[in-house]
Structure formats: C-alpha cells, structure tokens
C-alpha cells in the first residue's frame, strides 16, 4: 500500500500514483461530537464510498467540478490533490440539529428559504460557526471564494433535492467542503449519511448518522436503505 499521508476520523489519505492525486480510503470508524464518541461499524466505509460516488457522479454530470478522478474499489478512490479550505459549508432545507437547538425551532420545520452557513474546521474548537468577514479577516478564504462556494452549494442543493426526492428521501441538511486545485475551487470530501441528514419523505425516519449520534440503533440499516434506493436494487 502507498504511504499514508493523513488519517482523518473516518477516512485515510495515501500518496497517489503522481503528484497531482491522492488515494482516499473510507474506513468503518464512526465518530461524533468532534471525535469524542467512536465505534467501528462493519461495512460503513463501503456504504459511504458507494453513496458518495453515486452523488459525485451525478453532480459531475451536471457541471459541478469535484475532486473525484475514479473509483478504485469498494472503499478507495483516486482524487485530485487539493488544498482544503478550512471552513465547512452547511446547507439546510429543514430545521434540525444545531440549527434547531440554537434558534429554538422544532426539528422538521420546513425553512422558507435554503440557508447556508460556514463553520471553522477545528475539532479542538468544536467547529464553531464563523461569518464571512471573520473568515476573510483570518485569511482563511477570500470574499470571492466564499461567494463561489455559496453559489456552488446552492446549485448542488437543487441537484441533490431532485436526486433524493425521486427516491423518497427528504434532504434535511448537509456539510460540504471545497479545495483549491489548479487555480479553481472544487468540491472535496464525501457526501454521505455521515455528512447529511436524510429522512424518509413519508415517515421522517432518520437514515443517517443521527442514528449513531443519538443511539437510535441499526445505524447501517439506514445507510443501506439510502444506497439501495439510489441504485434501485
Ligand atoms: P449540525 O450543525 O446540525 O450539527 O449539522 C448540520 C449538517 O452538517 C448535518 O447533516 C451534519 O451531518 C453535517 N455536519 C456538520 N458538521 C459536520 C462535521 O464536522 N462532519 C460531518 N461529517 N458532517 C458534519
């Protein structure tokens, strides 16, 4: 195996075959609360890889530039080397999670418009929310980059709502990451039940990592359900 360059909470990054790429391996580790809760869930890596690759393929087909070069096997992919922008972009269609707690809005409340927000990528600090002027003041990203990421996030949201509503899934909220590559920003990291809230459209049953965070049980049954709906199998 190639040299490991970085071990994240649920993925490991290895040297790629050339200096323009990395190999990403999805592991079975599940973490929550900035890594404080941790468990091995047999098969999670392959489920997340499969789901993320289907979403990335669809986004690419619809004009969104992403880091994905090619899928190697069940748990690994070749991706473009990119310098990750150290903020997460959070997109919300329905109130849930920290939004509900912070603003006192019941989970499941449909929002009158899509919201986007940034949070600083820092487990130590608990990924605090950060605004545009704070991000530019700290030199983390430029105003143009923030506008571009927001614009891309809204395009991705329209595409993903279309994709998931067709298979009976309510796209509640999710997290995106971008990286700088060849003078452009491209979509990086994964889009999976680890980084999204997916609810069944009819029953509002949770099909995502909230099953793990909230000890609801049968975590991977939700992930399997998402994958089988997307593949139609
Ligand atoms: P919240 O702010 O409600 O905790 O999270 C909003 C959405 O972004 C949820 O779908 C959650 O899964 C995702 N999200 C927020 N922060 C992170 C993070 O650090 N890692 C991952 N994988 N997802 C996150």
Descriptive terms for the model:
6 helices; globular; seven-stranded antiparallel β-sheet; 14 strands; five-stranded antiparallel β-sheet; 233 residues; 30% helix; binds guanosine-5'-monophosphate; alpha+beta
In short:
With 233 residues, the chain is an alpha+beta fold.
Can you walk through the features of this model?
- The chain has about 230 residues and is α+β, with helices and mostly antiparallel strands.
- About 30% of the residues lie in helices and about 35% in strands.
- It has helices spanning about 45-60, 95-105, 130-135, 145-165, 210-215, 220-230; strands at about 5, 10-15, 20-25, 30, 35-40, 70-75, 75-80, 85, 85-95, 110-120, 130, 170-180, 185-190, 195-200.
- β2 (about 10-15) and β3 (about 20-25) form a beta hairpin.
- α1 packs parallel to α6.
- It is globular and about 45 Å long.
- It starts with a strand and ends with a helix.
- Bound molecules: guanosine-5'-monophosphate.
- Guanosine-5'-monophosphate binds near residues 96 and 195.
- Guanosine-5'-monophosphate binds near residues 90, 175, 194 and 209.
**Overall mean confidence score, pLDDT:** 97
Strand content: 25-35%
How many beta-strand segments? 14
Computed structural class: alpha+beta
Output the radius of gyration: 17 Å
Task: Bin the helical content.
Answer: 25-40%
Query: What spatial form do the alpha-carbon principal axes imply?
Result: globular
What is the assembly state of the chains in this entry? single chain
The helix/strand order is: EEEEEHEEEEHEEHHEEEHH
Bound molecules: guanosine-5'-monophosphate
